[in-house]
Amino acid sequence: MTTRFRPVALAAAVLGSACLLTAGPAHATVATEGTAVQALGDDVYRDWFTSHARCVTAGQGGIDRGHWGHYTCSEGDVFWHLWTDR
């Protein structure tokens, strides 16, 4: 019965490691909406996304709702990472 849970534990460990390894630097410069945006060292990490379009949608949604003034979507090995100024 323990062999049934090993693949699940292994998959969770691999996914967790991938998330940690793809966090990306806070000083990434990435083109967003046609302009290059420089993330500042004090930007806050918000979330990861499976595509650049989803990251941009979330970043722009935060601006539209007044949660932050600018955002950066940095590309990791697997995911896109959203950084904001607040």
Compact overview of the structure:
Residues 1-28 form the signal peptide. This protein has 86 residues and is α+β, with helices and mostly antiparallel strands. It contains 2 helices and 5 strands; from the N terminus they run αβββαββ.
Structure, described:
By secondary structure, the chain is α+β, with helices and mostly antiparallel strands. Helix content is 38%, strand content 28%. It has two helices and five strands; from the N terminus they run αβββαββ. Strands 3-5-4 form a three-stranded antiparallel β-sheet, covered by helices on one side. The protein has a two-stranded antiparallel ribbon with strand order 1-2. The longest helix is centred in the first third of the chain and has 20 residues. It starts with a helix and ends with a strand. The N terminus is likely disordered.
Low-pLDDT segments, ≥5 res: 1-5, 19-36
**Total count of strands:** 5
Span of the ends, CA to CA:
47 Å
Strand content: 25-35%
C-alpha Rg (nearest Å) = 16 Å
Which helices and strands, and how do they pair?
Elements: H1 2-21, E1 29-32, E2 35-38, E3 44-49, H2 52-64, E4 71-75, E5 80-84
Antiparallel strand pairs: 1-2, 3-5, 4-5
Descriptive labels:
38% helix, single chain, 86 residues, disordered N terminus, 2 helices, alpha+beta, two-stranded antiparallel ribbon
